[in-house]
Amino acid sequence: MLNNLIYVRGHPDDYNEWFQNKEGYNYAKDVLTYFERLEISPSNAGGSVYVDDLPYKTELPKILLKAVKDLGFSMIDNMNTAKQGFGVPKINIINGRRWTTASHFIHSKPWNVLFRTNALADQVRFHANFEAYGVEFLYSGNRYLAKHQKNYPSAGVINTPTILMRSGVGPRKHLKEVGNSSKSRSASWRKFAGSHHYWL
Ligand SMILES: Cc1cc2nc3c(=O)[nH]c(=O)nc-3n(C[C@H](O)[C@H](O)[C@H](O)COP(=O)(O)OP(=O)(O)OC[C@H]3O[C@@H](n4cnc5c(N)ncnc54)[C@H](O)[C@@H]3O)c2cc1C
Questions:
Q1: Which of 23, 131, 167, 195 allows an S-S link to 123, with CB 3.0 to 4.6 Å?
Q2: What's the whole-model pTM score?
Q3: Membrane-crossing residues (predicted)?
Q4: Which residue, judged by its Cα, is nearest atom 50 of ligand 1?
Q5: Over the stretch 70-95, which tens digit does the pLDDT of each residue have?
Q6: Ligand 1 atom closest to Cα of residue 163
């Protein structure tokens, strides 16, 4: 199935493999707990994402599932525990509509969040010691600066690094090529990436 708001936690073995060299970490304690807090369920009304079964199925998945079963592949009920096989995934949906963490924040209207649509984040601004102090954004034809010590860029897989590179953060060679080397921070990138938070 493609393009259907599929929700899968990922296999515990994969997380535990990533934790191999991290003493004291394990899937049950450091990952599963957070999934359980995140997912809204009868025992967790305070979660933030709905995870449910597909509200309707066409004939196509039934035919495909029968075909793979006839070919001898294993069928799976729970995508979070099976390693291989075919089955029907859970999805992020409520009353037939997509539900995301963003939906949760918008619906719960937290008092300390300001939503600004049609605003275009341009770059993160830094002090001379590379500490971020805000985000410059364009809104309604004007340029603004949202000052904050913690900034989390989440502009997607292409635009997030683009914004960072416009801010002078990235591979020095490439920044030079695009003429943004004057404030290049590539040398301190590792330290910087590990010790700062961004939000756009
Ligand atoms: C066809 C397709 C099907 C998929 N199906 C699934 C699925 O079933 N299940 C699943 O888990 N994942 C699925 N994914 C992957 C999933 O959509 C992404 O992993 C997820 O959306 C990434 O979230 P994000 O918040 O990092 O980025 P995005 O969802 O890309 O959000 C980035 C946001 O930033 C905004 N933005 C960009 N630049 C700026 C800027 N300069 N200033 C301000 N805002 C900006 C964009 O408009 C966008 O709204 C699918 C992806 C595709 C393409």
A1: 167
A2: 0.75
A3: none
A4: 3
A5: 999 999 999 898 989 999 889 999 98
A6: 41
